[in-house]
Structures are given as C-alpha cells and as structure tokens.
Prior knowledge:
The complex is a heterodimer.
Chain A lengths: L7 H26 L7 H22 L1 H4 L2 H8 L8 H16 L6 H27 L2 H12 L2 H7 L5 H18 L6 H14 L8 H22 L7 H17 L7 H13 L6 E3 L2 E3 L8 H9 L2 H23 L2 H7 L5 H18 L16 H23 L9 H23 L13 H8 L14 H7 L5 E3 L5 H9 L8 E3 L7 E5 L5 H11 L6 E5 L2 E8 L7
Parallel strand pairs in A: 3-4, 3-5
Antiparallel strand pairs in A: 1-2, 5-7, 6-7
Helix pairs in contact in A: 1-6, 1-7, 2-4, 2-5, 2-22, 5-6, 6-7, 6-9, 6-18, 7-18, 7-19, 8-19, 9-10, 10-12, 11-17, 15-18, 17-18, 18-19
Chain B lengths: L3 H4 L18 H19 L3 H14 L5 E5 L4 H12 L2 H4 L9 E6 L12 E8 L2 E7 L8 E2 L9 E7 L2 E8 L19 E3 L8 E8 L5 E7 L7 E10 L3 E7 L2 H4 L7 E7 L2 E8 L6 E6 L8 E10 L7 E6 L1
Parallel strand pairs in B: 1-2
Antiparallel strand pairs in B: 2-4, 3-4, 5-17, 6-7, 6-11, 7-8, 8-9, 9-10, 10-17, 11-16, 12-15, 12-17, 13-14, 13-16
Amino acid sequence: MKFRREPGSRRYFVDHLVGATLAVSYLIILVKTARAIGYARDEGFYFRAASSYAAWFEHLFRDPAGAMQRATVEMYWSNNHEHPGLVKSLFGLSWNYLFKRWHLFADEGTSYRFGGMCFAAAGLWLVYVWGARARSRAVGLVAALLFAAMPRVFYHAHLDCFDVPIAVMWTLCAYCYWRSLENLGLGWAVTTGVMFGLALDTKLNAWFLPPALVLHALLARGGFIWRGLKRGQLRVPPALIGMAAIGPLVCFALWPWIWFDTVDRVKGYAQFHLNHDYYNMVFLGETYWRPPMPRAYVWVMTAATVPAVTLLLFFIGAASRLRAMLALVSSRMAARVKDYDPRGTDLLWAIGLSVQYAPWVFSTNIPIFGGTKHWFTAYPFLCLFAGVGFEWIAERVRSLIEGGVLARLPARAIDVALGAAVLAAPLAETAHAHPWGLSNYTPLVGGASGGATLGLNRQFWGFTTGAVTDWLNQHVSPGQAVYIHDTAGESWDMLHRDGRLLPNIGAAWSIPGSAFALYQHEEHMETIEYQIWAAYGTSSPVHIGAYDGVPIIYVYAKPGQMIR
Amino acid sequence: MTDGPALAREHSLPQRAGRARYLALLVPLFGLVELVAHFYFAQRAPKSEEWTAARPLIASWYKAGAVVVIAPYWAEPMARLAFGDELMPMRDVARPDVTRYPEALEISILGRRAPELEGWKVGREERKGKFTLRALENPSPINVTYDFTDHVGPSTAAVRIEKRSTPVDCAFNPSATLESGGLGGTPVYPSARFQCPGEAAHVFVGVTIIDDEKSHPRRCIWSHPPGNDAELVTRFRDVPLGSKIHGHAGLGWLIERDRTVPPFTITVLVAEHEVGRVVHLPGDFWKPFEFSLAGAALRPTADVEFRVSAAGGGTHVCFEADSR
C-alpha cells in the first residue's frame, strides 16, 4: 500500500489516529461480545482479588497514611498475592468506578473484564504503530488485524486475566526500547524503564524481557559496545539501564504486597511460579500432568489454532527479512550504510518471538496446562512479520498486474482486495469461534471436530457454563441446585450478579446434593462424568452445549427431578 | 529516525521472469481456500438436531442385546443425548469390553471406525446424511451365562470380611448415603451396597463406574479390602456356569496413574476351589483376566467367590466378571 510521505509529526499523528481507531473499534467489539462468554475459573479468583484491591484504593483516598500500614496492606493485598497487582488493580478500579459509581456497564462481570479488554485494544494500536513505523502502514494494519483475528487471542482478550495484558506489555516494553535506539536521549530510556516496571507488575513473562533485550543489544550493537569498552566507555543502550534502575522501583511502588518483607515475598512469588503445579492437559489423546511435556506441543498447537494464512504470511515475511539481512551482510559497504537499520528491527522482532517459544523448545519441564496462552507474547511479533509478508506479496502482485488489463486499477484497490483475501479466513474463524474460544481449531486440523479426533483439548477453566445458562434458566425449577463442576464459585456467582442466571438456581458443591449436574469435558475429568452417571443412574445427558457438532459441556438431570 | 519507507527500500523488486512470478497469487488464493475449508469443517460433524433426526432409523436397526458403538468415540455424548437410555443404557455405555455382545450397531461419522469392532463382520451398511450405520456381527460370539456385576444384591450375593479366618458379615443397605469423591477422589459410593461393620466407608461392595487408562467408563464391582491381608469376600450363589470366568480389574486411571498405589489380589473360587488369581500391579490399569473352569464347568451351577486382598491399608479395587 503506497502512501504519500507526510511530514514526520503529521505522519505520526495519522498513525496514532489509525491505531486509536483500531483500538476503539476492537474495544467496542469486545465489550459487545463479552456477555456471551461464561466466566473462567481464574476470572472468578481475580474478581475477588480485584474487589479487595479496589477497596484498598478507596481506603487510600480516604486515609492515605492508614492505607500504607502493614496490617491494612495485608488485609487487602494478601488475596491472590501469587500474581502481581497492576492488572487486578485496573480490573478493580474499572469495576468500582465504571460499574458501581458511574453505572456505565450493565454487567458487573464486564466491568471487571473491561480492564483486560483495554490492554487488548491497546495491543492493536501498538502493533499497528510499530508495523507502520518500522515498515509501512500496510504492514501495521495487516499485522494488527491478524492479531485481532486470532481466535484464541480474541477469546482471552475478553477476560479479566493477565495473558493478553502481558503480551501487550511485553511488546510495549520492547517497542519503547526500540524507540530508545533512535537516539540515546533519556526520554525513551526512562519510558522503557517505566514500562518494564509495569510489565513486571503484570505477569512473570516480564522476567524474559531483560535477557531478550540484552541479547538484542549484543547482537545488534555488539561491535559498538565492544569498541566503547576498549575506550573505557559504557555504551549500553540507556533503555537497558532504565529498565534496571526504574523497572523494579515501579513494580515495587505499584504492588503494595511486596512493600513489607520484600525479599521473602518476592522470593515466594518466584518460587510459586518456578515450582508451579503441573495441571492436566491433553495433547494428541494423551493427558500430560507431569514432565516430560511433549516437545511438539507448542508447534502443533500454534499450527492448529493460528489461522493458516497468518502463519503462511509470517513465514513469507520472516523469510523475506532474513533474505534481506543476508543480502545486506554480503553487500558492499556503501549498500550497508544505505540500508543499515541501527535498531535491528528484524532481529528484535525475531528475538521477541523466539524467546516466548524457547522455554518449550529447550525444556520438557515447562507446564503446558494453559494451552496457547503461555506463548501469546510471541503473537504480536508473529503478526508483525506476517504484515511484512503481506507487503512482500502485495508488491509482487502489483508488479504482476502492471502492464495487464488490471493495470488501470488503483494500487490501493489491489491492496484492499489482497487484504480481504488474506484476512477473510482469520476474521471468519474468529467470529465463528465466539464464544467457544478454546474449543476452536483451524481448518488445518479439520476444525473443532478435527481437533477432537486428534485428541486436542476442548476447553479448560470451566467457562463454557455461560453457554448453557439459557437452558438452565428455562429448565431448572426454583430451589433446585446445579453441580457446577469446574466452574469456580465466584464465576457462578457473577453469572447471577449479571442476571444471566436466575437467582433461585443454586450451586451444588457435590453431585449427590444436586438435581442437575454440569460436566465440562476434559479428558482427565471424565471420572466426574462417570460419578454423575453412577449417582444419577443414567448416562444420557438432557442437554449438550456443542460447538460445530463437538460436545463441550453436558447437562445431566437426576431422574425423577422435575424439569421445566 | 529511520522510517518505514526508508527501511523498505530493499523491497525494490527485481524483475522476475517466467511462471514463478505468479507464485505470489497463491497466497491470497490460500487465504480463500482456508475460508472455504473453514465453512466446510464447521458443518462437517452432525449437529444435535441431526443426531435426533437419525434416532428413528437407529431404533429401527437396533436389536435387543446388541451394543450401539459410536465412531469417533468423542461423538458418543451426542448419541447418548439423542438416543437415550433405551438405545444406549449405562450398562452398555460403561461396558467392560465388546466381547460379550453378539452384535454391534456402529454409528459412524466423519468416516471413522470404532477400533474395538475391528475384525467384526459387516452384515449391513447404510449411509444416511452424515451418518453411516453398520450392523456388525461378532466373529467369536460367546454366551454369557452370568454377569456378576448385574447380581450385586442380597438375593444373589453375600459379602464378608475374613481376618485370620474370622468372618464378619457385611450387610446389604439399599439406601446408604450416596457419596462421590470429585476430581482425584474415589468414584461414587452407590446407595445400594454391602457395608462392613467397623470399617471405613470405602470398605464396601457395590456397583460403581471407574475410568480406564483411555478415560473410558467401566462399570464394575467396588471391592475395597480393609488391608492387612484381610480379604473382602463376595460370594455369588448358584451361578450358572460356562466354561470360563472372564473379567477385568482396576481402580481408576486418575487414581492409579502415579503408580503409587499398592498392588492387590483377587482370588476366584468356584465351588470352594480356586480357579485363578489376579495380581494387579500399579500401572496395570483396566486389566483383563480369564480363568478356565475345567472340571468345575461340569456342574450346571455353583457358588463363586471373589476374594480381594491388599497389603498395608488396602487399596481401591473395582472388578467385573462374567461366566461364559
């Protein structure tokens, strides 16, 4: 896509305008579609934590000195202290102000989720701007849209969880570092440090930022740094110093839990994740619950869940950039100077992508229970390369058309047609995946039914209860209790608070005490379904929430119970 | 700052000759093919209403004593919803294996076949919409003379614990408290079960369902011995005998998968004579056994005992058996 070159400031303004438009559009879509998705287990835990943190902020505004006291901090912040506080604080503040005070949301659950959605929307803005600045607006636009149109990303983008926020914060920190390489002034260096602190306060994936960016600095500027050292000068990119100096302070300042017993609590946080339980995850028909984890998992799951055309564009983009880099290395000095990219953009994107996959490539001890969300942080970079791939293809298609009957068409029309051709499938798959999200598989493996046949996971976190609330409202009589299986109590409660479940439908915590029972299918949980059979005396469900013919959540009724 | 257009200079296109120039068109084409494939696969498996619509046809093919098998296995819940207990009773759905059935009705979608019916002879086949129906005959049909799991009740069985030759009778309670262990816990303790006085709640004999190593359901007789080499003995009276005792034993994949459970032993006696012994080691999971009755089969009926024991504090045991 060719755009008239504009003066720098105007061009950047337009870039941000486009980025903001993408972000707001995506945010609106996310908000409008959130209600259809039931609440995941972890969301339920974060509702509670976010409410607690929001109450602390209330306390802080009312009594700043009192709020800083150890007992007060621990009262509000001990909840879910195994994860940092930034994102949960935003969930809580969103709920407190946008729902409780200003009544901007009809659904309480959506008001919590709004904080997470904002990260996802900002992610589109960021990917667009980075692609536009590094390559072209076409690259940025296609990259951002491909990121938005990843079915798994779209699902997680709705949640009050950390996976999309950390993917965005990771990319944002890398972007700030990249901007800092334009000049060695303090502005972007300080910004990078602040963003690193925010990323640290988002999720543990931020720990990978320093090694990734140091590696980039060494590879992209190793000679420069080495020559400096020989002269007694420290030529480390200032952004790295900013990260080291500012990042931990920002994280500390925004996470009151670690204000006291800091060393022990930070150590406890690290230990929790370094020694995390291995939850169950099925892969190709086998359930993994302890190491060694399958090495093929990340590759197969990426191929099975990211639209194939996105992957194809990524490979084309990455290959074209690799080819360009190799050509640069072998070219004469004059050409090197002309095309030299002092920021090592391709390298940074490649590192940004690779470092997310590296744990599963180099170790079979890394848990896989979270499925693709573990390496979401790679996807912005994957999409940026895919955007490059699109541009590479578009240029070649345009050159084909030159001199032909279609030559009269404006170049932009050709680009739009090409864009539509490559975006149609990802958009259709993403729209179709809603609200099932985790049950979706791409046509490369035969869709959802192909995934089931291959023995891939159909869901986790018990969120699909949201798909059967209408049935429950119609058929469960007042006072009857439903065994809610993998759905967290807080998540079930939120369905009530949102009005999605009638108030007189209670939750049962055991099968024998229930009149109805839910079963969210996961291979290792089949024993729960069989307990329902044995308790109810039937193996025939009365309702199934299915996605493309694949059974996802089953409802059983105890024989003899009145079903409306 | 180096902006996009400057960095994109290396994209200046070499003039490419020949057909290779057209390869670029494959990418948008690939995108459109993926779009078409997406819609195809989204519609490929039958939806709930299609399963329901197929029920009359399935019912017209169904014969009492046959088992309905769904291929692929993951689609079975859709069939259970549409066909109900009449065509797919829990006893068949949680079958020990298919050897006991003379016939099977295979409902196939997506071109899949049921591995457990491999080698069965197709007697009839019909395609109807997204379904393929096959009536299959067991190549080695057997006659089950007695299914022990169907006879766990006071009129046909008696249960006792034997500790150093001192028997303690376990009484049948038709309305004991129903209990379920949840994820990682024990299977359901049915309300109708033999309860043993002075023992923990899990020391009982009753019919429940466990998961095998493929997470498939297996209906079986829970028989948790009290430990310390005491035996939990279930005696079935006047069992019509065949030529062998065929069965399986396990304790549930989720419980056994760490292989930290103790081994257990089931000794089978027919007319007071031991005909075989099952030693279940950690990791055996849903393990088959078969004992010839030889001389005992000369009798038309006899009492059959299953004596279950384990060292230490005992362990979960669930077995099923038939005489055939």
